[in-house]
Amino acid sequence: MASVRAGTGAAVRLAVEGPAEAPVIRVGAAESGAAAEAVLARAEALTAEDAAVRCIRVEAADDVSRSLIGLGAARRAPAGVEILPGLLWQCAARWLPEPRPPFPEIHTVTEGRRHPLRPEAPEGTVYARRIPWLGRTLTFRTLTEPGDAALFSRWMNEPRVAEVWAEAGSLAAHEAYLARLRADPHQLTLFGCLDGVPFGYFELYWARESRLGAHYEAEPYDRGWHVAIGEADIRGRAHLSAWLPSLMHYLFLDEPRTRRIVGEPRADHAQQLRNLAGSGFGPLATVDFPHKRAVLVALGRERFVRDRLWVPGAAAADARPRPPDVQA
């Protein structure tokens, strides 16, 4: 057995055996919380780049097995417990530093549109994931640190970003822009970071009460997003396959009732449309706004989980066949 360290710093001895599509993790004696965390970290590593893993059997003490089941990452099986990738990657506690329970559902009306009352926006780091093919840690955090507005302003004035966003302007104008969004409970602004260094800006919104909600039959918990990658060295396939599925992953984890994520890229932005298609999004309609013609695209939770779209290339036409559906 190899010794690994859980996030608590405790050493846990693990062994991984068996075929790649159905490995077995054997766990040595350890405190149940630390052991469960170490097992989840190893299971994440086994499934982060390989969509062919069908299940991961865990041989561990009963308290460790109960912890894994209680977290929602595993189920009981004839020979102990097994982690299913589709369960694991919907286990919010693995990637959200402070996972929130679903906000109680009561409805309100915004500009004539009935929708669930939204929770208060989170603060700080909301998501963290180790990206093995980059050897770096990706995080999403709110814009609450000194210098964030100045960095946002620099990016908005970068010609490539300004061409799409049309938000070039002064620092004062951008500070007012961000303050307006912070005061809006229907939107959330985030920076994407690699090893703590910001590389891009993201606006997340609830679709039903957004401008897009008037153009399609939005479900109560549909989420939408806009992106500006500010740092040129982060553009490219390797980085796209890290931040884009991770952002979708965050949206699905943050609200378990979210069944669909939508977007509204410019209809003439061929590269972005290709990137979205290669990440599992499909077109629903063409929408005309005063400032642009857009393609309404959508990604469903079922497809994200079933096709393992956190794995690079999993949505490609020539991707390896996914495992068969889970047996009851």
UniProtKB/TrEMBL annotation:
Pathway: Siderophore biosynthesis
Any one Gene Ontology BP term: siderophore biosynthetic process
Coiled coil: none
SUPFAM superfamilies assigned: Acyl-CoA N-acyltransferases (Nat) (SSF55729)
Domain Acyltransferase MbtK/IucB-like conserved: 141-188
Pfam families, per the entry: Acetyltransf_8
Transmembrane segments: none
Taxonomic superkingdom: Bacteria
Name this polypeptide is given: Acyltransferase MbtK/IucB-like conserved domain-containing protein
Native source organism of the sequence: Methylobacterium gregans
